[in-house]
Design brief:
Shape: elongated
Number of helices: 3
Number of domains: 1
Structural class: mainly alpha
Number of strands: 0
Order of helices and strands: HHH
Mean pLDDT: 85
Low-confidence stretches: none
Helix content: over 70%
Strand content: under 5%
Distance between the termini: 75 Å
């Protein structure tokens, strides 16, 4: 009976979490802008911007959670990874955190007009 070959991969569970955190920040910023664009007409009709504030808050939480996921999975991966993979994990962690922080800033910047302008402006 042949001995089964071990499954070799460089894509470990914490790498999956890093990849999700890498995508989560920019995707939440773009989705926030898109949904706010579609909901602006409804906000004008209702005369209330509550729905716009709620969607911005939800996507802000997603972007912030992406930053924390990147930090958490980066520290876990750095403790487990070998020297050959440490540079890749460190780069991906830094990039995911930078994209997440940038996305948080974009979401906050897109919320400023909702706070300043009237519903139908």
């Amino acid at each position: 009976m042949a001995k089964p070959k071990p499954f070799k991969t460089d894509f470990r569970p914490h790498d999956k979490m890093l990849l999700v955190s890498f995508i989560l920040g920019p995707l939440s910023a773009v989705t926030n802008v898109t949904i706010s664009y579609f909901l602006s007409q409804e906000s004008c009709v209702q005369g209330s911007k509550t729905i716009l504030h709620l969607t911005s808050a939800a996507f802000l939480l997603l972007a912030v959670s992406g930053v924390f996921m990147a930090r958490l999975s980066g520290t876990r991966a750095a403790a487990v990874s070998t020297d050959a993979l440490k540079e890749r994990v460190q780069w991906l962690t830094t990039a995911a955190m930078a994209l997440g922080v940038g996305s948080v800033l974009v979401i906050i910047a897109s919320e400023i007009p909702n706070l300043i302008l009237r519903s139908c402006d």
